[in-house]
Amino acid sequence: MDISHLPPSLQVLWTSKQHHRRGPRPALTLDAVVGAAIDIADADGLGAVSMSRVAERLGFTPMSLYRYVKSKDELLLLMADAANEAPPSPPATDDWREAIEQWARLVFATFRRHPWLLQVPVNGPPAGPSQLRWMEAGLQNLAGTGLHEGRKLQIIQLLHGYVRGEAQLSNDLAHPDPAESTAGQYGAIIRTVTAPETHPALTRMLSSGLLDGPTEYDEDIDFGFGLGTILDGVALLVDREGFHG
């Protein structure tokens, strides 16, 4: 596979998949470097990852790492690709909705397992090895809808955008700034700064007591409601545009 014409970042990702050394297994490998960096990011956040910290974890000098990665930016690319583990095989079901819901929940679980992935910039459409595996799996799950290829791609983009946004929200709510936290006080705070004359809809909401409950993110309630609503819309689209032969 000739990847010389690809952008530099994609060359890094696809070259790593072809990275095989002949002879005895070396004491240090690219997979070990990337794995150690992921462990550090999972434990202490992306800001804790440095070449020196990774080298210390592996018991090598920082300079020895540069045989495998040229810079921290390159390491970050490889970390993001490796953390997006291969998706499972499509579920054994003809129900496209069940299949794509499972796909979306697995993407969400990946962000929850590696929240630092949310800090990795999105610089373009999916083109890395792991990104394309997940994209392929999502498209396969929609194969039975009868929708044209453009619609399937739009649905995948919509779902991934929703999942990423909800993962960001859940992570932010799980780690609030103590000085700014509204835990257990949200309803009281809103009552302080609103009035029936200026915020009649919020006043009705306050009267219901819904804003006096816990504000923690609930995956089953919060994530599940949004995902289900999106898939309800997709189902209507399938009924209207899908091929029914």
UniProtKB/TrEMBL annotation:
<dbReference type="InterPro" id="IPR036271">
    <property type="entry name" value="Tet_transcr_reg_TetR-rel_C_sf"/>
</dbReference>
<dbReference type="InterPro" id="IPR004111">
    <property type="entry name" value="Repressor_TetR_C"/>
</dbReference>
<dbReference type="InterPro" id="IPR001647">
    <property type="entry name" value="HTH_TetR"/>
</dbReference>
<protein>
    <submittedName>
        <fullName>TetR family transcriptional regulator</fullName>
    </submittedName>
</protein>
<keyword id="KW-0804">Transcription</keyword>
<feature type="domain" description="HTH tetR-type">
    <location>
        <begin position="27"/>
        <end position="87"/>
    </location>
</feature>
<dbReference type="GO" id="GO:0000976">
    <property type="term" value="F:transcription cis-regulatory region binding"/>
</dbReference>
<dbReference type="Pfam" id="PF02909">
    <property type="entry name" value="TetR_C_1"/>
</dbReference>
<dbReference type="InterPro" id="IPR050109">
    <property type="entry name" value="HTH-type_TetR-like_transc_reg"/>
</dbReference>
<feature type="DNA-binding region" description="H-T-H motif">
    <location>
        <begin position="50"/>
        <end position="69"/>
    </location>
</feature>
<dbReference type="InterPro" id="IPR009057">
    <property type="entry name" value="Homeodomain-like_sf"/>
</dbReference>
<dbReference type="GO" id="GO:0003700">
    <property type="term" value="F:DNA-binding transcription factor activity"/>
</dbReference>
<keyword id="KW-0238">DNA-binding</keyword>
<keyword id="KW-0805">Transcription regulation</keyword>
<dbReference type="GO" id="GO:0045892">
    <property type="term" value="P:negative regulation of DNA-templated transcription"/>
</dbReference>
<dbReference type="Pfam" id="PF00440">
    <property type="entry name" value="TetR_N"/>
</dbReference>
